[in-house]
Predict the 3D structure of the following.
Amino acid sequence: MSASVTLKDIARAAGVSTAAISQALNDRGSMRPETRERIKAIAAELGYVPNRHAAALRSGRTMTVGFVMGDDPDDDRRGELQRARKLTSLVRASAAHGFTVTVLPDSTPDLIAGTTLDALYVPDARGNRELLLAAIARGIPIVADDQFVDGSRGLSIRTGYDAAVRAGLDELERAGARRIAFLTEDGGAPRDEIGRAAYEIWSSVRGREPLVRAVDASRRTLPRLITDVLADGADAIFAGAEDGPDVYLQLEEMRLVIPRDVQLVALCSTDCAVNRRLGVTHVCIRPDLAAQAMFDTLPGALLDDGPRVVDLPWELVPGSTTRPPMAVALPQSVKAP
């Protein structure tokens, strides 16, 4: 099959004009159905491949999406890995849809002025105000994770962090937990801020005092923090920073019986398989699906008909680290005399 076959080649083989070939291949015009099908068959036999980029340029599109990559030298390794995974997902989804990807560092918003993009994907919209304003000024639709895009053209992708945290806390509550500690990541990354806020709101609604501890990126402080929260009366731990397996192993090393002595639920997007193998109850989030969600919604987001919101799926996976829900004692029925 050759991608060099042109409309003129098909027209020569079919004995019609190139205008007729264009109408047939794009299902336009009023030609007879049998003629249209004959032209399509000849095009397929010759191995004709439509030039998506040429068609896109004629419609004012570029078949290119931008990806904002953080370039802070002080950024933690987990944040770098998450962005790298999102970039990989975007490249794969873009290739499947005939798009290319342009990577833009978040520290140089001036680069926006020299780019032509169909959309700009921002995995973390916080801290990128200048870059976002520059893109909006040029009319480029913004696609952002867990951040509402205020504009007529754009897409907000809700990855489900807050909903997953609430579901995990509800699971612990149903299993009888009364004092739930929340472990987050030190540094205040956007995902951790969302998880912590969801935990604090959940605790406030139920009249519980929050018990939050921040774990360093290297996990060196994890043993001490677990000891601290248990000393503070925690009977359950929600691991909200991809460290569910680490917490599980640390509890075992402390010779605590799980879930009798302490229950555990983990939030994860990269270690879901490990949590499943260990039997850790976890809520699995799929931020890697954001890129495909963008392409599923991109045609509408390119129109001036208001911002769009898409919710990604997530799953609560029960394991052996939580107890079955506590049974509610029902009054005994009165026997008839």
